[in-house]
Amino acid sequence: MRLPAWLKTPLPKNPNFFRLKSLVQEHGLHTVCESASCPNIGKCWDRGTLTIMILGNTCTRACRFCDVDTGHLQPPRTEEPEEVALMLSKLNLRYVVITSVDRDDLKDGGSGLWAETIRQVRKHCPGLKVEALIPDFQGDTAAIQTVCNAEPDVLAHNIETVASLQKAVRPQCCYQWSLDTLSVARRSGLIAKSSLMLGMGETHDEVVQTMTDLRNAGCQILTIGQYLRPTRDHLEVKEFIHPDRFAEYKRIGEEMGFDHVESGPLVRSSYEADRQASALGLV
C-alpha cells in the first residue's frame, strides 16, 4: 500500500539530532528509537527526548508488528543500571523514556534490574524526569510492583491493539495482563500511560471499547497512532487511518476522562513524551 501524504516525514537535519546520535553511539546505549525504526526520531531527539532500551536488544517474544530482534539472549549485566545512569548524565536531557525487551527467560522478568536502573538514574541525574515503559511481566503482580516501588514519574505499558487482535498481533501477550499492569501502577499512585496502534483490522467500536477498558484500569495518558509495517515479514497494514478519525478518537478519549490523549497518524508511545507529561504538571 502506498503511504498517504500525511505519513511522510522529512529526514533529520537539526544539529541536536546528530549530537545525540553521536553521544548515544559513543556511550553504547540501545535506543528503541533506532531498534524499532521510529519515524519520529528526528523530531524527538531534536527536542532532547529519547527512549533507551535496557536488558539487551533481543526479545523473548515475537510480536508481529515489532522490529526488535528475537533470538539469542545474553544474561543481564548487573553493572548496566549504573552505566545507563552515568551515560544519561552526559546527555543533558530533561526527560527520558526507559523501556526494555521482554525477558520471559528470567525468573523476575528483569524487574529487579528495572528498579535498580530507575534508582541509579535518580542518583546520577537529579531533575531528570523518568518514564518507565515496561513489559507485562506475564501478569506477575510482584514484578510489576517492584518497578512501581522505584517510583518512576510515569509508568507506561502498551496494550497495542484491541482484544480480538491480540493473538494475531502479539501472540505471547495477554490483554488482561496489560490492563492489570496499569491497574497496579495506579494503585501505587503513579501516572499510568498506554498506547494503541490502528490500521490492523480493528473496528471503530473495538477501539472505543479498548479505550474504555484502559480508562477503567486507571490509564491517564493515552497515545494512538498508525501501525506501519517495518518489513515484509511483519503484519500487513489493513488500513491507513485518516487524520480526522484520529481527531475523533482524541475527542472521545477526552470525554472519557483521560488527562491527555495524543492521537495522530505518526504518534507513537514515546512521541514527545515530555509534552504529554506536562499535561499532568510533570515538566
Report on this model:
The chain has 283 residues and is α/β, with parallel strands linked by helices. Helix content is 37%, strand content 15%. It contains 11 helices and 9 strands. The strands form 2 sheets. A 7-stranded parallel beta sheet has the order 1-4-5-6-7-8-9. The chain starts with 14 loop residues before the first helix and ends in a 5-residue tail after the last helix. The mean pLDDT is 88.
- What is the number of helical segments per DSSP (H or I, 4+ residues)? 11
Give the end-to-end Cα distance, rounded to a whole number of Å: 39 Å
> Mind telling me the C-alpha Rg?
18 Å
Low-pLDDT segments: none
Number of strands: 9
Morphology: globular
Helix-strand pattern, N to C?
Answer: HHHEEEHEHEHEHHEHEHEH
Helix content: 25-40%
- Output the strand order for the largest sheet: 1-4-5-6-7-8-9
- The share of residues in extended strands comes to 5-15%
Task: Describe the SSE topology.
Blueprint: H1 15-26, H2 32-35, H3 41-46, E1 49-54, E2 58-59, E3 69-70, H4 80-88, E4 95-100, H5 111-124, E5 129-133, H6 141-149, E6 154-156, H7 166-169, H8 175-187, E7 191-198, H9 204-216, E8 221-226, H10 243-256, E9 260-263, H11 273-278
Parallel strand pairs: 1-4, 2-3, 4-5, 5-6, 6-7, 7-8, 8-9
Helix pairs in contact: 4-5, 5-6, 6-8, 9-10
Please summarize what this structure is.
This protein is an alpha/beta fold. The chain has 11 helices and 9 strands.
Descriptive terms for the model:
283 residues, alpha/beta, seven-stranded parallel sheet, two-stranded parallel ribbon, 11 helices, 9 strands, 37% helix
